[in-house]
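Researcher: We're teaching a course module on how sequence relates to structure. For the next exercise, students receive a sequence and then see the predicted structure as tokens, so they can try to spot secondary structure elements on their own. Here is the exercise chain.
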Amino acid sequence: MIDSMEKKVLVLNLDHSPVAIVTVQKALVLTILQKATSLANFDYLRIRTIDREFFYPAVIRLYEYKNIPYRGVMLNRANLYKRDNFSCQYCGSKKNLTIDHVLPKSKGGKTTWTNLATACHRCNTLKGDKTPEQAGMKLFALPFRPTLSYFLVEYAERHAEEWIPFLQVRSV
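Model: And here is the predicted structure for the students to work with:
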């Protein structure tokens, strides 16, 4: 359980796309300065001053659209393992994980979200320099490029259920 002072706030652009995660303090400043409005609160938490009481914001939306270039989710080992639920996409094992090029590099396979899958050392060795079909292996799920929302949902499910209605999960 996250301490209430460590709760994070989801910041949405004017078009409701997620743009940032900020501290409660930063979210309150944005709302007090009328740069954002609160769309959802952590109902069980309050911030009290000498003469006022504020709800703890959970989701805020900016009043003005901010043009933030979409950089996508960084392709790295940690994010790939997270996308694949820290399990081998061929057998389900959670031990000795490696990264597999579904279409091997020697056959023109690229290092992209849609061509990489988490594989245990055993399955990666069995598959070798072949496609899954050639090796007689089947992927549990096809590799996909995740969105920022995809990763935020996981956080929200554990720490901020109030975010879930504002996150649309789909791959790009």
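Model: If you want an answer key for the exercise: The helical segments are 24-32, 77-83, 121-127, 148-159. The mean pLDDT is 88.
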